[in-house]
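Hi R.,

Here's the chain you asked about this morning:
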Amino acid sequence: MDTAKYANSLTPVLLDVVNAGNVAFIESQYAAFKRDSRSVDPQWASFFAGFELAGAGSTPSVELRQEAGRVMQVADLMHSYRELGHLIANLDPLGHNVRQYPLLELSEFHIEEADLDRVVTARGFRGGAQATVREIVRQLKETYCGTFAVEFMEIHDVEQRAWLIEQMEPTLNKPTLSSEDRRFILERLIAAEDFELFLQRNYGTVKRFSNEGGDSLIPLLDELIETGAKLGMDELVIGMAHRGRLNVLAHILHKPYELILSEIMDRPTSKTGGDGDVKYHLGYAHDLSTKNGHKVHLSLASNPSHLEMIDPLVEGAVRAKQSRKGDDTRERTIPLLMHGDASFTGQGIVAETLFLSELEAYRTGGTIHIIINNQIGFTTTPAEGRFTRYPTDIARAIQAPVFHVNADDPEAAVHAARVAMAFRQRFKADVMIDLVCYRRRGHNETDDASVTQPVMAREIAEHPTVRQIYAAKLLAAGEVTQAELDRIAAALKEKLSHAKAYAETFKPLNVPPPTYGAWADFLKLPTGNNWGADTGVDKEALREIAQRVTRVPEGFHRHKTVARMMERRAKQVREGKGIDWGCGEMLAYATLLNEGTWIRLSGQDVARGTFSHRHAVWFDNESGRRYVPLAAFAEEKGQGARFAVINSMLSEFATVGFEYGFAAADPHTLTIWEAQFGDFVNMAQPMIDQFISSSESKWGKYNGLVMLLPHGYEGQGPEHSHARLERFLQLCAEENLQVCYPTTPAQFFHLLRRQVHRPYRRPLIVMSPKSLLRHPLCVSTLDELAAAEGFQDWIDEIDAIDKSHVRRVIVCSGKIYFELLDERRRQKISDVAILRLEQIYPFNAERLTEISRTYPKEAEIVWVQEEPRNNGVYPFIGAKLHYHWIGMKKLFYVGRKPSASPAAGSHEQHVQEQKEIISRALEMNQEPVIDTKPPELMPLVP
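And the predicted structure, written out as C-alpha cells:
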C-alpha cells in the first residue's frame, strides 16, 4: 500500500489504541522521533512534527498528555461514527429511525458541553483541518448518519477501508451533481412513477409487481451503468426477481413500451416457440450508448419465481464471458444482482452464491448487489422473517461493504451507485447497496396490504412519492419550473397512450433470431431426427495423444498409485484393448483439447474422482506440486484450448446453477458438473426443474451442460445408489433433454465428443458408473473409439447366439447388463438375448423397431432393472416398448418391488435382492411379473 497517500486517512487506526493508560508509550515514541524522525511510523512523525510547529514548551510530557487526550477523544469519536453511525442514520422513508445510540453519546468520549467549541485538529478526517468539536460532530453525522450510511469498518483490508473513507468524508457523503444531472434524475423518477400509474389505471387487476416506493432504483441503475462505462465496463449482466422488473425492462433495458403492454394484455409476443412465461419473468438485452459515448451491452436474465435462483447463473455466465473475452482483470463484464429483502436473508442459495464468489474458480471480480428493501416480505414482517438488523448482514461473511440508502433521496442512491461501482472496479470485490424503501401496493396489484399491515399501509398512503419529494426540492431551488414538469409528464403520457393503441391494434411480436451472440453458429434443433455426430478418432492419433497425456514431466515424482494407473492406460491404448472407463474419459477430453475445445469439469472431488478413477491432477510425492496433464497438453498444443478441473465447495444448488450459467453463455466450452454421488443431485432439483429442463420452452434459451451422476445399486444404502433417473425422465418432453446410461468406455467417449461436435446443444444427463469403473467386462477397444458410427442409442446382443432360437429378450439399461451377461455366460444360457438401451431420451423408436424384427415374434420381452418398479426407466419405457416392439403380446417386468425408499440399507438384503432379479430374468422356471399394457402406460402419441 502507498503509505504516504493514505497516512492521513489511516491516522485513526493508530490513534484508536491511544488512551489514558499509554502515555508512556506516547512519550517513548516522541523520544524516538526526537532522535531520528524516520524511526517511528510516518503517522506518529506527522503528529509530533505538528506538535513542535505549534510551539510546544520545555515540558513536552504534560503538553503531550493534554494534546494526546484531545486527539484521542476526536479519534475515538471518528472511529465510532465510522463504525456505528449507520445505527442512527436517516434510512427509513417512513420515518421509523432510531436517532440515538449509547456508544455514540458524547459522554461516552468524555466530551462535555464546554468542550464543543474547542478547536482541535481532526487528524485523519477531511484532510486534518482544524475545527471545533461541535463542527466535527456535525460533519460526522452528516457523513455517516444521513440518508446514506455505510458499514465498512469490519472489513479486514486496510486499503479498502481507507479508500472508502477517502471517497466519503471529503464530500460528507454527498455526490457532486450539476443542475443538468438533477434534472435528469427527476425526469427518470417521473418516467418510473408515471409508467406504474399508467399500468395501474389501465390494467389495475393484472399482476406486475410494481416498483412504486423504490423509484430511486432507476436513477441508481443509470448511474451504475454510466460510472461503470467510464471505468472500463462494456457489459452488465443483470439478475433480478420480479419486483420492479417491468420498470427496469422499460427504462434501463429500453424494451419498447408496446411489447410490455402486449404482454400485459396477455397476448403472445414472441415467435421463439415453446410455452412462454409471464411478463415479469422475462429477460431482455439491449446495446446502450452512455452519455459519454461508451457502448455497454445490457442483458437481464430470465428468472422463475424462485426469487434468488438466478444468482449463481448470472455469476457463471459472467465468468464464461470474461474467459472468452480474455478479460483477465475482470473489469469489462460485471454481474449485477438485485434482491428482495426477504429473499436475500431467507433463501440459502444467496449464501451459497456469496461463498462461491470468494473461490478462485468461481470468481467474477466482484458483484454489485442491490437489495430492494421493501421492509416486508409477502405479508411477513422483518421481525418474523429474520433475526438480524439488516437483510445485508450475511455480507459480513465475505467482507463486503454495505451502503444503506434512504430511497426517498435519489441523490444518495446515485452517490451509492458511483461509490459502489468505483469500489468494485478498484478492488474486484462484492459490494452491497441496501435501498431502503417501501411497497406502495400489496405484494402484487391484486393484494390488499392493509389487511395484514394496516398501520404501514396507512403510512404509505399518506406519504409523498419519491418523485413528489424530489420535484419539490428542485422547484424550491429554482432548478426546474412547474411548467417544465408538466411538459415532461404530458410527453410521457402521450408516448404511453400511443404504445397502448399500437399494442392493441398491431399486437407487436418480439422476434429475436433463433440463436445469436455466442450461439450464432448453432442450430435451434437437429435436422430431422439426426442426433448423431462424427466422433471417431484415428487410432494412431489416439496412441500419440495417450502417450503425451500420461507422460511424466521431468523432475516430477508421481505417487505410485497414479503412476500405475497412467502406465496401465498407456498400455491399454498402445495394445488397443482393455481400455477402461477412466482411460476412455481421458481420451475424450484429450482429443477435444487437441481440436481446440475448452473444457470445464467441476464438482466435489472431481480432480481425483469420488471413486479414484480419474486422477486428472497429479501431486508431486515429494514437494506436493500440482500438475494437470490435460491442461499441460492443451497449452502445449498451442491452439487456445483450455482444461480446467475444479474441486467445488460442498454445494450442489449453487454450483449446478453456476455451471449452467457458464454453459448458457459459452456453448463452445464443454461444461461438465459431476455429482459426488448421483443421489446428491436432488439438492439441485430446483435448478433442474426451473432451468435445465424448461428454459428452452419458457424463454427460448439453450444449454449444453453435462451432468455426470454416479448411479447403480451396490449395497451402499438409499443415499448412495440412485441418481433419481425417473425424475429426469418425467421432465422429458419436446426433446428438451438427453438422458443416457452408457455402459462402455467407448460409448462414453463418443457421447462426450458428440456433445461438442453437434451443431446444437441440449443438456446431457449421464448415469455414470461406480463399480463399472473397474469391472473386467466394462472395457473397450481402440477400434471402438475410432468407429465411425459413434455413440449407439441401442446396443443389440453382442454374443454369438442364434436369434431364431431366442425365447426371451431382456431389455435393460446400465450396470445390471453386466450382471446379466456374466450370469448368462456362467450358466451357458443360449436362448436369452440381452438388449441395452443407452440413450433413454430422446427415445430412438425406429431403431427399437428395427431390432425387434430380428427376433422371433413369440419371444418374451422382459424389462429388467435394479431400481424399484416405481423408479428407474420402467415407468417411462413400458408403453414405448409395447408400442414399438413388433408383435409384442406381453411385457414382463423384473426388478425390485415398488418402494418409498430407493434402496435397502442392509448390504445383505441388497445382495439377496440382486440375486433374485438376475435369477428371475434368466431362469426358465421363474416367470417374471406380467405387465399387459396397463392403461396408464398406453401412449396417446407414440
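Confidence is low (pLDDT under 50) at residues 1-13, 15-21, 53-59, 932-942.

Let me know if you need anything else.
M.
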